[in-house]
Each structure stands twice: as structure tokens, then as C-alpha cells.
Amino acid sequence: xxxxxxxxxxxxxxxxxxxxxxxxxxxxxxxxxxxxxxxxxxxxxxxxxxxxxxxxxxxxxxxxxxxxxxxxxxxxxxxx
Length: 80
Hints:
By secondary structure, the chain is mainly α. It folds into 2 domains: 1-49, no CATH class; 52-80, no CATH class. The longest helix is centred in the middle third of the chain and has 12 residues, at 30-41. The protein has helices at residues 2-10, 21-27, 30-41, 54-60, 66-76. The radius of gyration is 16 Å and the shape is elongated. It contains 5 helices and no strands.
């Protein structure tokens, strides 16, 4: 399962319980996540596990979240 998860990640796949249940369950285990991060760390990559729940899904769908809007506004305002 390690090879499957790493190959999926390196080819740009998103592993979640809906797209790759086996990979998701594998990476949900702390030891497996640590192994994957140790391997990926050699090339400057790592596995992240978003915990935003519904907010994360809304962000992925393209909705502007309030905190993101504030940061974008700050980024676009002139600096003094």
C-alpha cells in the first residue's frame, strides 16, 4: 500500500476517502503518514491532511471563504 499511496501522490492525485479509500485509510494511520513523509521529505514534499472539513470542501469548490477574502483584501491594499 505504501507504493500505491506514494505513486498516487507523486502523479498529482488527491487521496481522500471518496477517490481512493484504501490509500486514505493507509495514510490515516500515524505510522504510515510518517513513513510517507520521511520518503517524500527527500524531495521536499510532504503529505498534508486538511482538517477544515466543510470549509475545505467549499474552498476546493471555488467559494471565497471569509478569512481568505480578508487575506486577499490585505494583499491587494496599498502598503504604507
